[in-house]
């Protein structure tokens, strides 16, 4: 938790900024529980909107094209919908993440 701060006038409270300004508008958001070795879609897909993923518990493997990106607890990633992508839990523990859909 080294990258967390205690905001001014807050007590027993730690916070970490997950993103700067996101361009576009939020069209929906959801929480996902992905079991070990689960995920999808298979095959990877593209679409017009972007995803902003926040890992709450566990570690997600985000496949973007040929790249595999590990996103750990309390980390986030913005995925362009124009790139082929999918989300996987390659660990032995339950993955909990929040997905926010952003329209351009």
Automatic annotation (TrEMBL):
<dbReference type="InterPro" id="IPR013096">
    <property type="entry name" value="Cupin_2"/>
</dbReference>
<dbReference type="Pfam" id="PF07883">
    <property type="entry name" value="Cupin_2"/>
</dbReference>
<dbReference type="InterPro" id="IPR014710">
    <property type="entry name" value="RmlC-like_jellyroll"/>
</dbReference>
<dbReference type="InterPro" id="IPR011051">
    <property type="entry name" value="RmlC_Cupin_sf"/>
</dbReference>
<protein>
    <recommendedName>
        <fullName>Cupin type-2 domain-containing protein</fullName>
    </recommendedName>
</protein>
<feature type="domain" description="Cupin type-2">
    <location>
        <begin position="37"/>
        <end position="98"/>
    </location>
</feature>
């Amino acid at each position: 938790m080294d990258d967390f701060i205690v905001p001014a006038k807050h007590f027993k409270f730690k916070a970490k900024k997950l993103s700067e300004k996101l361009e576009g508008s939020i069209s929906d958001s959801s929480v996902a529980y992905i079991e070990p070795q689960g995920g999808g879609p298979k095959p990877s897909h593209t679409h017009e909107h972007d995803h902003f993923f926040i890992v709450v518990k566990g570690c997600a493997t985000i496949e973007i094209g040929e790249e595999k990106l590990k996103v750990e607890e309390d980390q986030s990633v913005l995925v362009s919908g124009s790139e082929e992508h999918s989300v996987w839990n390659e660990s032995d523990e339950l993955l909990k993440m929040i997905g926010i859909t952003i329209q351009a």
